[in-house]
Amino acid sequence: MTPAIEVRGLRYRYPDGTEALREVTLSLAPGECVGLLGANGSGKSTLLLHLNGILPERAGAESAVRINGLPVTAGNVEAVRRQVGVLFQDPDDQLFCGTVADDVAFGPQQLGLAAAVVDERVRSALARVGLTGYERRTPHHLSQGEKRRVCLAGVLAYEPSILVLDEPTSGLDPRGRREFKKLLREVAATKLIASHDLELVVELCPRSILLDGGRVVADGPTVALLSNEELMLAHGLERPHILQHLHPHPSYALKPRTNGTASREAEADFFRRIG
Ligand SMILES: Nc1ncnc2c1ncn2[C@@H]1O[C@H](COP(=O)(O)OP(=O)(O)OP(=O)(O)O)[C@@H](O)[C@H]1O
Ligand SMILES: [Mg+2]
Question: Is residue 53 part of a domain?
């Protein structure tokens, strides 16, 4: 099956010389929900910005990233963006219209949908994120959590087959987090979620990928990864509280739980990486 997201040997250096991605190889099967973990500066956001062609600024013909088999090149970027919805880490990077309704409508309008369909998508997306009644508000005057919800509505409104979310729960209150998790469970897209919210990752993502210094240092079942205290501490993270009292049976830890999509190869790779 063609992977939804395929990254092979991706490297990226920012214009000031910072080497943000040194060698990233990963693959997500359609429908998978995968956590992207790593300490500050490990390269999560930089990686995510490559998945819909925001980086590099000028994609070459030979891209290291493929979306549903399509290389992310300058010529393909529009087609890729129809398939990949990215929620930026900073909502202020995402919101640019004068009203909430216009911001949420932007994606569906780009798809060329009829005005009535766009209106319905906006109404439904705002309802899903709990912002009915906010249509005429100015995005930049909203609270951080409200801004994040508007961004999420904007991404949901054009129904991408792949959702790429960068710190989606940061700034959300407890009810907002709970509703957001419920919402994500209901969305049938392939999802890659970068987050320091390890409880969210445990609850939503059967598989996780750990980055450090622009490299993938582990890729496997979330519970096995996060339960490995040595691995977590070595890469600037810690075992989350939610797992403190969980002692997975060894055979449980051995079984990748990636929606049944993990291959033998992925399993072997996981154990090679985490030793
Ligand atoms: N615009 C930029 N110019 C130069 N270096 C950058 C730029 N953006 C990020 N970096 C650097 O690239 C590396 C990876 O940063 P990135 O933002 O991808 O990390 P991250 O894993 O998302 O971190 P966080 O958990 O803090 O969000 C870091 O060393 C960072 O300082
Ligand atoms: Mg980041």
Answer: yes
